């Protein structure tokens, strides 16, 4: 029998039970639902809304139920719709009339908001932990590669030389923002909605603040209508997840490219690659590709929930039950991707020789050649023009700037002297760029220690 059957004359159609029940996905909230109910029951007892004995009986039965669920001996029922009513029905089955008092001063609407917030908070902390493990790995990798020169690109055309450490630290910055975003979003997750009732609060003298403290929330929601109809925090997490996926996906794309024979910058470990069923020579970067691919579904979940919430009138509407699958799927996907991504980076072998080779070819030092002339007194625009003509000459004669004779160079500008070869050397091009934020190895070492300091002091969950 349904917990709300009093007003109904007919049973729910079987296909409607199939259609609207959410137990097949929201069973995941069982721990959060039970701890929310225990806090609620204890508060009801403290406030004298039910007796202390009744509260004790309810809590003991809920603890027992939790153990049985964890041991796998409970099967939930579709007819009871969702995890909230499944647990309540089981409670009533066990302790009868007293169990029926648990839902005093509470609605499923504030209950589902509470459970989802607790789940989201826990998962956010897990993602922060995973991001922090990834960040440590990035710092370690960067530390090993402050002298590893590689070409930097714009438009995927060689632009100016950088180091692998500098490139890796660019991702450190992205994931740092992701962590900051999640920590900020956590503040908005961490407010306690119970006491909002179905939409209009309740007449019972509930102690909302006590429940909030009991469940580790930093405060309570301020408006009952908003509290039961707010899914902003879910959308925010889906947005954070999307951004994390985007960042991983960009790095994955580079690893895919770099592991080609054409680039040869990186060799993915056998344990993070797969083979082909027909081509014996193949070793494919499937892990990186799959992370790139899964980015699409995480974006999809964000779009799905934005669309669900669009134009929903206040307060709760059943549409909102659609939030959970999107949330669970994105959180699962991001966590799994972060784990394999970190493992993939741990095992990848970076090929410093090929990177250096890439950095000294393709005129990555052309800007430095122009800057050289500027330092000798030529206005930048004119220097740009001279070096442009020089590059064209080199392309036609298949030679690099640094391999031209001084006499040839002087045909393009009398300002060239012997010291041009120092200016064009790879090491100079990288290490003269030592403004804050630049790729010079000393600068990047500073960035790495600043990053390490930040990571050690960051307090996810605080
Ligand atoms: N399972 C529902 C959800 O996830 C909770 C029920 C909300 N309340 C209601 N009046 N139907 O949204």
Task: Tell me about this structure.
It is a single chain. This protein is mostly helical and 462 residues long. 62% of the residues lie in helices and 5% in strands. The chain is built from 19 helices and 6 strands. Helix 6 runs parallel beside helix 12. The longest helix has 37 residues, at 108-144. The chain is elongated, with a radius of gyration of 30 Å. The two termini are 44 Å apart. It binds arginine (ARG). Residues 22, 26, 82, 108-109, 112, 316, 318, 320-321, 324 line the site of arginine.
Give the topology.
Elements (H helix, E strand, L loop, with lengths): L13 H7 L2 H4 L3 H17 L5 H20 L11 H13 L12 H37 L4 E6 L2 E7 H26 L1 E2 L15 H7 L4 E2 L3 H6 L2 H27 L7 E2 L18 H24 L13 H25 L1 E2 L1 H9 L5 H10 L4 H18 L8 H7 L7 H5 L1 H6 L9 H17 L5
Parallel strand pairs: 3-4
Antiparallel strand pairs: 1-2, 5-6
SSE succession: HHHHHHEEHEHEHHEHHEHHHHHHH
The number of distinct structural domains comes to 2
- What is the CATH fold-level name of the largest domain? Fumarase C, Chain A, domain 2
Q: Strand order of the main beta sheet, please? A: 1-2
Question: What CATH first level of the largest domain would be assigned?
Answer: Mainly Alpha
The average pLDDT value, as a whole number, equals: 97
């Amino acid at each position: 029998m349904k917990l709300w059957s009093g007003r109904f004359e007919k049973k729910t159609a079987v296909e409607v039970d199939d259609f609207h029940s959410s137990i097949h996905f929201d069973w995941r909230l069982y721990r959060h639902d039970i701890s929310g109910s225990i806090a609620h029951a204890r508060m009801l007892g403290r406030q004298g809304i039910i007796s202390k004995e009744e509260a004790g009986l309810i809590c003991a039965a809920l603890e027992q139920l939790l153990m049985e669920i964890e041991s796998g001996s409970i099967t939930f029922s579709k007819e009871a719709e969702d995890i909230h009513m499944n647990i309540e029905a089981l409670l009533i089955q066990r302790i009868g009339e007293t169990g029926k008092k648990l839902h005093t001063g509470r609605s499923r609407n504030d209950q589902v908001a509470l459970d989802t917030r607790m789940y989201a908070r826990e998962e956010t902390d897990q993602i922060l932990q995973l991001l922090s493990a990834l960040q440590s790995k990035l710092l370690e990798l960067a530390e090993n590669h402050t002298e590893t020169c590689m070409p930097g690109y714009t438009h995927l055309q060689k632009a100016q030389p950088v180091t692998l450490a500098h490139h890796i630290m660019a991702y450190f910055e992205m994931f740092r923002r992701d962590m900051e975003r999640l920590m900020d979003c956590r503040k908005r997750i961490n407010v306690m909605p119970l006491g909002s009732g179905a939409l209009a609060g309740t007449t019972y003298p509930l102690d909302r603040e006590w429940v909030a403290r009991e469940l580790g929330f930093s405060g309570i929601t301020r408006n009952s209508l908003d509290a039961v109809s707010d899914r902003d925090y879910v959308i925010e997490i889906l947005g954070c997840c999307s951004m994390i996926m985007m960042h991983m996906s960009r790095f994955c794309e580079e690893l895919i490219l770099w592991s080609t024979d054409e680039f040869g910058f990186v060799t993915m470990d056998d344990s993070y690659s797969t083979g082909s069923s027909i081509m014996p020579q193949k070793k494919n970067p499937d892990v990186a590709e799959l992370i790139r691919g899964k980015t699409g579904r995480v974006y999809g979940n964000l779009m799905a929930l934005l669309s669900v919430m669009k134009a929903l009138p206040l307060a709760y509407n059943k549409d909102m039950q659609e939030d959970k699958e999107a949330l669970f799927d994105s959180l699962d996907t991001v966590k799994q991707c972060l784990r394999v991504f970190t493992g993939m980076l741990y095992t990848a072998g970076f090929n410093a020789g090929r990177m250096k080779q890439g950095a000294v070819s393709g005129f990555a030092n052309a800007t430095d050649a122009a800057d050289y002339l500027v330092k000798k007194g030529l206005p930048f625009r004119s220097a740009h023009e001279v070096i442009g003509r020089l590059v064209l000459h080199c392309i036609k004669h298949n030679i690099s700037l640094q391999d031209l004779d001084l006499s040839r160079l002087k045909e393009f500008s009398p300002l060239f002297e012997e010291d041009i070869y120092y200016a064009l050397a790879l090491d100079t091009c990288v290490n003269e760029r030592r403004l804050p934020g630049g790729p010079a190895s000393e600068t990047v070492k500073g960035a790495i220690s600043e990053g390490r300091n930040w990571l050690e002091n960051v307090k996810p969950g605080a």
